[in-house]
Structures are given as C-alpha cells and as structure tokens.
Write a structure and sequence with these properties.
single chain; mainly beta; Methylamine Dehydrogenase, Chain H; four-stranded antiparallel beta sheet; 6 helices; 23 strands; WD repeat; Transcription initiation factor TFIID subunit 5-like isoform X3; repeat
Length: 374
C-alpha cells in the first residue's frame, strides 16, 4: 500500500463528545446496541447527556439532583432504576411526591391536570401537585356543603357561558352534589353557584353536559326519584332560576346517569331497582315525563354505567352488558363475574373497559366498531 495514501476514517476516530452528540438522535434500543459493539462506543453510549435526554423525554421532567439517592449513580443508573421499578409493577414511582393528609380514607377523588380533588363527608380538599420534584404542594379546603358529598364532576369552561366575564376560558370547573339537597359549582377555590330543587339528597350528576352550543344543561338525580335539569347560564349566585325541568318516572332513588355518545340530548338514568330510562331533553320544555324515549330493566344491583356512541354499558351485580339505545335491546355481554362485580370503568377513546371482582381485575379490549355494526 502506498504510504502516502491516507487510511479511511473509522467511526472510532471521532472523539467521545462527537459520538455522544450523534447518539442523542438514537432511540433507547439503538443506544443499547451501540453499547455492545466495543468499549470505546460503550463509553460514548454511557454519556450523561444521552441519558439525561432520555430521562427528560420519557418522564417530562429533569433528573433529580445528583446528590439525591435516586440519581447518585448518574443519569443512566437513575433512568434504568426507575424503568425497572415501573416494569416490575411496584406501583411506586421513585420520584413520587408524598402529600400528607388525614389518616381517614376519602370517599371520592378526581384528577385535573396538576390538581387533585378529594372529598370526605361534607368537605372537599383541593391539592395542587408540584410541577418540579421536591417543591411543596398547596392545599385548599372547601366547606360550603352541610352534609356528605355524593358525586363530583369536572366540566370544561369552554362548554358553558357561566364564567364569560372572565374573558378567555380555559381549564375545568368542579360540580358537586350532596345529601344537603344542593348542587354547587366551584371555580378558583370558591363556590360560584348553588342550585336547590330536589326534595331529598342529590345522589348523582350526569357525566357530561347535555345539549350543544352555549346553552348546555347539567342533569342531576336524587333520592326523590326525579331527574332535574339545570341551566348553567342562570343569573344569581344561588341559581334561583337555574331549574329548567323536572323529569318524573323512576319509582326508586336514582343511582347513576350518563349522556349518550351519539346524541348529546339523550340522558340515560338508572335507579336502585335497575330500571333504565332514556330521556330526550330537547322535549323537556315543560315539566313532564313525556320526554322519556326508552325503557328497559336489568338484572342485579347497578354498579356503574357508561355510554359510548349509541351503546349503554351497564355493570350490575355480576356482569357488564351493552344495550343499544336505539332499540333498547341487549346486544352483548361484555364481562361476567362470579360471585360479584365490585367496580366498572370505561375508556371509550381507547376501546377499553376495566372491571374489578373479588381478588382480581380485568382490563378488556372491546372491538366497538364491530359491535356497532350488529
């Protein structure tokens, strides 16, 4: 070989900083492959900048201080330790922030971005989760109710003209029902509206607002067996003119309510006797029961209900059944439990249902497209 001819440049001729910069464009699998090639490339693949970037991208936060117990071995060790803990289903994030509360259990919980709402008895605790690890959290107590809180819901501000005077609307507002016969609307840590009309405890609220545009209404169900519709655009803090309609028909206290997915004017309610009624609120301009457009009865005690498109998924006692709201006929048994079903939730956007029974839980994927074509 001619001594004057230059040798081809190899990847190992690059310095470690250059290799580390190139490796920042690789995914985790490729970085592992790079580390197995040779000692020189492994040293580049173990660069702090690479693993700090991976840590930040996966968990949307910066690496803890290097003098902490989590990151004392460097960015790579911190990343792998956290990944290992999560994949082993330890259900404890190494960077979890503990928020100290009272030892008694809470009844209800809602998550809203960086806020956590929990209720116990007649009070609500609003806790703001710190955005940066190690920062103390804030705690606000809401005490306007006079009896046990029975239901909590979050609704987008963009779906109502309730707070129009505040200019640009963003975020959610909280709605709670209580055994003190009232419904309260909360925003920015204070009660903005109070609705009264039920002759007994308010047991549940609709999971969505009914209707379209800015004239949406809230539905509530009570121990008095009535469904009440409330206008969120009513004037006055006490909401004296908020009651839009009272719907009669149930013989027992109302347990659960859900808004249909294919038509936002349809409200589904189920009472403690597991009798289901479907209401069309566009026909509720007068206080009467003629807006009931569907009836059916389900076996067993109601656990939970969720609507997806034109289907109602109802969990009662030991099974989850799907009812077509257009025909009120059962079209599917989605899950079955023996001897008893304790809990049921649904994530329609992911076509998932989650059920809980004695000693086990099931996460089930539903082919909703195929079901809808039945």
């Amino acid at each position: 070989m001619d001594q004057n001819q230059s040798l081809p440049t190899a990847i190992t001729d690059l310095n470690e900083d250059s290799l580390a910069h190139c490796a920042t464009f690789l995914n985790l699998h490729d970085i592992f492959n790079l580390a197995t090639t040779c000692k020189y490339l492994r040293q580049a693949a173990y660069s702090e900048s690479i693993w700090q970037r991976l840590f930040r991208e996966r968990w949307q936060q910066l690496l803890p201080p290097l003098d902490s117990s989590v990151a004392s071995g460097g960015a790579r060790d911190a990343y792998l330790a956290r990944l290992s803990a999560l994949q082993q289903f330890k259900f404890e994030d190494p960077l979890v922030v503990d928020m100290l509360t009272e030892p008694e259990p809470y009844n209800l919980m809602l998550l809203d971005r960086d806020d956590v709402f929990v209720s116990r008895g007649s009070s609500i605790r609003m806790m703001k989760i710190p955005k940066i690890f190690g920062r103390s959290h804030s705690l606000t107590t809401l005490n306007d109710h006079n009896a046990r809180i029975t239901c909590m819901r979050l609704f987008p501000l963009t779906e109502t003209s309730l707070f129009r005077s505040e200019g640009k609307k963003s975020g959610n507002f909280l709605v709670t029902s209580s055994s003190d016969h009232s419904i309260r609307l909360w925003w920015k840590g204070s009660c903005q509206k109070c609705f009264r009309g039920h002759s007994g405890p308010v047991s549940t609220l609709s999971d969505k607002l009914l209707g379209d545009g800015s004239s949406k209404v809230l539905a509530s169900g009570g121990e008095d067996g009535t469904v009440r519709l409330w206008s969120l655009g009513s004037s006055g803090k006490r909401g004296k003119s908020a009651l839009k309609a009272t719907l009669h028909g149930h013989e027992k206290p109302i347990k659960l309510m859900s808004v249909a997915g294919h038509k936002t004017s349809l409200l589904v309610s189920i009472a403690r006797d597991s009798k289901v009624r479907v209401w069309d609120v566009t026909a509720s301009s007068t206080i009467r029961s003629s807006c009931c457009v569907g009836l059916t009865s389900l076996p067993g005690a109601p656990i939970n209900i969720k609507c997806h498109e034109s289907l109602l998924y109802a969990a009662t006692s030991s099974s989850v059944v799907a009812v077509d709201l257009r025909t009120m006929q059962k079209v599917l048994t989605a899950a079955a439990y023996q001897p008893f079903l304790y809990s049921f939730e649904m994530i329609p956007s992911k076509s998932l249902i989650c059920t809980g029974g004695r000693g086990r839980h099931i996460l089930k994927l539903l082919r909703l497209v195929e079901i809808m074509s039945m």
